[in-house]
Design brief:
The complex is a heterodimer. By secondary structure, chain A is an alpha+beta fold. In chain A, 21% of the residues lie in helices and 29% in strands. Chain A has a single domain, classed as Ubiquitin-like (UB roll) (Roll), CATH 3.10.20. The longest helix of chain A has 9 residues. The chains are: A alpha+beta, B alpha+beta.
């Protein structure tokens, strides 16, 4: 399964990139597992939010082939 | 029921007039408007410019759904959200949010509710440039 992972704002700055294209490893089937496959033992910064296919998601939500997963800090628009 | 993201400066009155004139004359009795502008200071520091980042596709979807839900909840005749992105200067408009309804209660409540929801949830982020040239991401509303 292949997915796209996007990072925004301060999290993108911290990680040094805005996108990853990822072939999911065996057993990687949740948003949390995607983070772990990409970042290893480095936990996400506190309060990091996640979205799946342009909607807010939970860390334990499943991922599917072709998904776009996004990680980002709390928002500050308006 | 439009929502727009734009890198251009926002002229609120032209947008408001266009929508008001598109509605049948006399069909609405209230038009509530919120205009959010960039301050030149924050947390005790002078801020010389602001970079407004967003997750474009998600932000567009979020604002569209915000308007759709508000239209049903408050029976709005029309609603408008225009949110700036990119680099802006102090005094420029960050967001224009407006509602049109039969009575003022619905217009005010919908306008305030949509604004607070936007600020809490819509995927935008502000990076400030301070007077000494350093940058920082805004972490509070």
């Amino acid at each position: 399964m292949s997915i796209t992972v996007r990072y925004f704002a301060s999290l993108r700055d911290t990680l040094g990139r805005d996108t990853d294209q990822l072939e999911l490893a065996a057993g990687v089937d949740t948003v949390r597992a995607v983070w772990t496959q990409l970042q290893g033992d480095t936990p996400p910064p506190a309060s990091t939010l996640v979205a799946r296919n342009l909607e807010y998601a939970k860390w334990d939500d499943p991922v599917s082939d072709g998904d776009e997963i996004a990680f980002f800090p709390p928002v500050s628009g308006g | 029921m439009p929502a727009h993201l734009t890198t251009a400066t926002i002229d609120p009155w032209s947008h408001l007039a266009a929508i008001s004139q598109s509605l049948p004359a006399g069909s609405f009795g209230a038009n509530a408007i919120f205009v959010g502008t960039m301050r030149d200071h924050n947390l005790g520091d002078s801020v010389t410019s602001l970079y407004l980042e967003c997750y474009p596709a998600m932000a567009q979807r979020y604002l569209d759904e915000l308007i759709n839900h508000a239209q049903k909840r408050w029976r709005l005749h029309e609603a408008l959200i225009i949110h700036r992105t990119g680099t802006i200067q102090p005094g420029e408009i960050i967001v224009l949010l407006a509602t049109w309804s039969a009575h003022r209660e619905a217009a005010f409540e919908a306008c305030r509710s949509m604004l607070e929801d936007l600020k809490q949830n819509a995927p935008f982020w502000k990076r400030e440039t301070l007077a000494d040239g350093t940058h920082r991401w805004e972490v509070t509303h």
